[in-house]
Amino acid sequence: MPVSAGQDPITVAVLHGGETPPGLERHAGDARLRFAADAGELAAVLPGSDVLLTWDFTSDAVKDVWEATDTDALRWVHTASAGVDRVAFPALLASGATLTNSRGVFDRPIAEFVLGAVIAFAKDTARSLTLQRERTWRHRETETVAGKVATVVGSGPIGRAVADLLGAVGMRVRLVGRRAADGVHAFDELPGLLPDTDHLVLAAPLTDATRGMLHAGTIALLPERARVVNVGRGALVVQDDLTDALATGRLAGAALDVFETEPLPATSPLWAMEHVLLSPHMSGDVVGWKDMLVELFADNLARFRDGRELRNVVDPERGYVSSSAGKV
Predict the structure, then answer these.
(1) Gap between the Cα atoms of 112 and 29, Å rounded
(2) What is the maximum span of the chain, computed from C-alpha positions, in angstroms?
(3) Distance CA 51, CA 271 (A)
(4) Is residue 303's pLDDT more than 50?
(5) Which of 19, 25, 189, 262 is catalytic?
(6) Annotated catalytic residue 224
(7) Average pLDDT of the segment spanning 14-42
(8) Quick one: angle between helices 107-122 and 157-168, nearest 10?
(9) Is there a catalytic annotation at residue 25?
(10) Which of these, 36, 108, 114, lies nearest to 11 by C-alpha position?
């Protein structure tokens, strides 16, 4: 259903975490902006606000202040991320406020990141850099990616973009979604797909069904040559189980962009593993990404003002944007 803003100027609360969204004032038109850096400030600006923009999508401030704050006026919550797990808590979902995300901004960048990780493993890039620093000439043979099997969990835009790029370099790609569809395997088929998987790519939203999906049991189904690439959410993986599998050689490697605890503690053994590629939750963050996030929100703000359908409406039962939601 369209969300109508009515006739009065729109009031937008912005949880920014210390960084103001670039150009937001210019794009906001006559909307009244109320900025909050943290939970304390958010509790002060949220009452009476029509809209909440969670620019700081790593913060739990919305959940922390929700129950003790007057949110009766709030009709729309937007998060500047593809994942909604920090804001899709039961009380917000039950409030009647429409929840939208930033789907579409990160698809291609994350797909390129995954392809880069797959090729880096195949061509032993990390070892080449180490030997270069050591001024050591050591000839080796590397792998080809053509013909290798990639199982991509997550059939939304990010997962499909990953599948397209991996397929373009000759990999055999299986896409796994919540349920079976044309060209998509159902999530409950995943155990049967793991034994011949060379690269397991996790690009699924974090839901009750996907939380902890990669654990000792599912890892045991993968061949020892398999590598794991996680660009979804850290909680998709039982990190201790994955760490143990990597330490013992049960898996050949992993490229991890997200973790159970972020930043990843300096005490984590993952830091020292030669066959592990670590990055600080940046797989979708390319030059200009913040501007794209603001432009997406601004477009939805105009839609909200006019009473038109919002883009990227999250299905409160599924916890992600369904294929039929969020019409442009």
Answers:
(1) 35
(2) 71
(3) 40
(4) yes
(5) 262
(6) no
(7) 97
(8) 40
(9) no
(10) 36
Q: What are phi and psi of 275, to 5 degrees?
A: -95, 20
Give 90-96 contacts, CB < 8 A, sequence gap 24+: 91/63, 91/66, 91/67, 92/62, 92/63, 92/66, 93/316, 95/71
- Digit-coded pLDDT (tens) for 40-87: 999 999 999 999 999 999 999 999 999 999 999 999 999 999 999 999
DSSP result, 86-117: TT--HHHHTTT-EEE--TTSSHHHHHHHHHHH
Q: Exactly one of 178, 233, 303, 311 is catalytic; which is it?
A: 233
Distance CA 278, CA 196 (A): 25
Token reading at 69: 């704050």
- Domain(s) of CATH 3.40.50.720: residues in the chain: 11-105+287-306, 107-278
Residue 195 — very low, low, confident or very high, per pLDDT cuts 50/70/90? very high
- In tens, the pLDDT along 267-292 reads 999 999 999 999 999 999 999 999 99
Q: CA 78 to CA 212: how far, in whole Å?
A: 26
Whether the CB-CB separation of 93 and 297 falls below 8 Å is answered with: no
Fold of 107-278: Rossmann fold (3.40.50)
**Strand bridging mode 32-36 / 51-54:** unpaired
Is there a catalytic annotation at residue 233? yes
Read off the pLDDT band of 8 (50, 70, 90): confident
Instruction: Choose among 126, 25, 84, 63: nearest CA to 232.
Output: 84
97: CB partners within 8 A, 6+ apart: 52, 71, 74, 75, 76, 77
Domain 11-105+287-306 falls in which CATH fold? Rossmann fold (3.40.50)
Q: Which of 27, 108, 281, 318 is catalytic?
A: 281
Q: pLDDT confidence of 105, banded at 50, 70, 90?
A: very high
Q: Quote the pLDDT of residue 158.
A: 98
